[in-house]
Amino acid sequence: MSSHSKDLSSPRLALSLPSKAPPFNPDWRLRLKGLALPVLIILILEIIVRIGWLPSYQMPAPSEIALTLGDLAEGALWKHISASLLRVLLGFAIGASLALIFAAWVGLSREAEAYLEPTFAGLRSIPSLAWVPLLLLWLGIDETSKVVLIAIGAFFPVYLNGVAAIRNIDRKLVEVGHMYGFNRRRLVRRILLPAALPGLFTGLRSGMSLAWMFLVAAELIAATKGLGYLLSDGRETSRPDIVLAAIIVLAVLGKLSDGILAGLEKRFLAWRDTFTGTEE
Predict the structure, then answer these.
(1) 62-267, superfamily in CATH?
(2) Can you give the pTM of this predicted structure?
């Protein structure tokens, strides 16, 4: 071998060589771990119901629920899903948008906080079901009352987390912006908004969860289609398999919508270098 040939055993060269990619993506491995508990619960329930420890008229076997889901999927299930999904998306969009506007106003202005915060504090303590009869009296039983109820549910988590995110920004960051001569718009865009984004995404994810909860409250009382109506129909016909099937669909849709927001959060906050937990 010539003196000009490179020694592959050199530590410096070894460090520069590309390392072999892991055989399995760690993210997928963590997701598979997340399926372990649901699968275990399904297996245990199947065994308990099959051996008679739980009566099937109270708790159907998971295999029976799967058959019910299959039957519903061939019928009106997609109509119920589309109706509920449209209501949630519309109500969440309205509630979250208004919440972000008011959160920015209250978070940036102490005078606005003095005027608005006492009223909002009283309104957010009202239970969701207490709004239902009032909205039915004002808006009737059509789509408007349901969307407004969902918007109310989504509003307060986004508002509270938005105000907290703005007020918890480090004062030194604002002082640095003033030192560089940032005007109000540039200060918001370059410092306040990036610093508040983690709290804002937390509020959006909480608001989406409450939007699904308020959807069920609306559809249980006044609806002819939707997953909440499917729950009510299963109760009235003494079909626990339909009730559980509707609950499972709600859980899946809620998880998917939260996953979308979590993906957006990961993308917009990729610049953060934060602690993500240990693997132990």
Answers:
(1) MetI-like (1.10.3720.10)
(2) 0.82
